[in-house]
Amino acid sequence: MKIFQHLLSMPQKRRGFHIITYEVLNAMPELPQIQTGICQVFIQHTSASLTINENADPTVRQDFEMYFNKAVPENDPEYRHDDEGADDMPAHLKAAMLGCSVQIPIRNGRLALGTWQGIYLCEHRNHGGSRNLIITAWGQ
Questions:
Q1: Fewest C-beta atoms under 10 Å: which of 31, 37, 79, 92?
Q2: Domain total for the chain?
Q3: What range does the domain containing 83 cover?
């Protein structure tokens, strides 16, 4: 069994859904050493999230942002946690809905993503700052 782990510090991104597949691959140069295994990408934040989805058409990412803004609106008077602004609690809720990690099978030394799949960093804050990801790959 081989295990590799790297910390990837992503520079601040604007609010929205960003494909980061290449950044993840570049951070894990040992990936070709694993023929069969798992790669986990974990974000160390509570107001941004990760998911896997369509990687070709940018309108998908725009529609994701539109949907989540409708589903979890800002300025709801019932939110109690709003110390950091109108996007504070909605960002936490959106992150909870999507999750803090994704797992991808490794097959023949490569991430076994589907043809149209990419890893998204979902930034739910207007000014979220840099984001840290821990990428762990293990297998044989």
A1: 79
A2: 1
A3: 2-139
